[in-house]
């Protein structure tokens, strides 16, 4: 199985011609063209939050118009720039579901890898938090099959990696980690937020953050910002091999 991960798209409403909006849109269009040309082709695209730049319904509709250009299924979870209700209203028939009540968390099945979308939006600010209800829901789904390779995709990185974009703490990352640590079949936790590719061992799995479609990470040696996406390939041994693919 081949999974593509893109993150932090920050798409604006159609017609927004500010330089950042134009850059983000151009990069996403280029990324989709690249993804559609992959060989072997992608089976699924996971989008780890900040689909829109301002959460507006207009931005959500514009993002859907662009993302529908993908030739494979795609699924998404929200980031702090998004509005849950607007995302659900725009993407519910295709890319999100609401299985917990009020949040966008759901399970993607029918593939060799079970993918669990986990809404990590807290009540205030931009930091991550997974409430007890979501933690219980996650635990129940993980316990339902402890053999299938599983990927959890969310927006916020649950562990501090010391980057400038990592200033907002994940309120209960250790509680999330304690749930995940019970299941050795959780191969990866995929996230966004920090706008740079990072891989770190955590509670028996690996946390992988994806680059953005052109947002800065704040690193001193960043130079020109290179949009990129992650390619995750499942090996015959049931492991995920990840590499970054530059865009443009």
In what range is the share of β-strand residues? 15-25%
**Low-confidence parts, pLDDT < 50 over ≥5 residues?**
none
Number of domains: 1
The CATH topology name reads: Purple Acid Phosphatase, chain A, domain 2
Q: Give the overall shape, derived from the CA principal axes.
A: globular
- Structural class call reads alpha/beta
Give me some keywords for this one.
six-stranded mixed β-sheet, five-stranded mixed β-sheet, 11 strands, 248 residues, 22% strand
Description:
The chain has one domain (2-246): Metallo-dependent phosphatases (Purple Acid Phosphatase, chain A, domain 2), CATH 3.60.21. The protein contains 5 helices and 11 strands. It has helices at residues 19-36, 57-67, 84-91, 132-144, 173-180; strands at residues 2-6, 44-48, 74-77, 106-108, 114-117, 150-153, 186-191, 198-202, 205-209, 228-234, 240-246. The longest helix is centred in the first third of the chain and has 18 residues, at 19-36. The model has no long low-confidence stretch (mean pLDDT 92).
């Amino acid at each position: 199985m081949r999974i593509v991960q893109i993150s932090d798209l920050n798409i604006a409403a159609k017609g927004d011609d500010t330089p950042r909006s134009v850059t983000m849109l151009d990069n996403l269009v280029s990324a989709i063209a690249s993804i559609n040309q992959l060989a072997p082709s992608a089976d699924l695209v996971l989008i780890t939050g900040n689909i829109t730049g301002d959460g507006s319904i207009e931005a959500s509709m514009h993002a859907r118009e662009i993302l529908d250009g993908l030739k494979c299924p795609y699924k998404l979870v929200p980031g702090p720039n998004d509005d849950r209700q607007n995302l659900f209203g725009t993407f519910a028939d295709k890319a999100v579901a609401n299985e917990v009540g009020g949040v966008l968390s759901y399970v993607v099945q029918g593939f060799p890898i079970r993918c669990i979308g986990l809404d990590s939006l807290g009540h205030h600010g931009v930091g991550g938090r997974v409430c007890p209800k979501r933690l219980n829901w996650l635990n129940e789904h993980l316990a339902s099959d402890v053999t299938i390779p599983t990927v959890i995709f969310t927006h916020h990185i649950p562990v501090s990696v010391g980057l400038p974009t990592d200033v907002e703490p994940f309120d209960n990352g250790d509680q999330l980690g304690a749930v995940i640590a019970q299941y050795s079949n959780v191969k990866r936790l995929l996230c966004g937020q920090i706008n740079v590719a990072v891989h770190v061992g955590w509670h028996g799995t690996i946390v992988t953050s994806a680059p953005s479609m052109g947002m800065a990470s704040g690193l001193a040696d960043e130079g020109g910002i290179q949009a990129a996406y992650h390619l995750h390939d499942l090996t015959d041994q049931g492991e995920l091999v990840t590499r970054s693919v530059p865009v443009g």
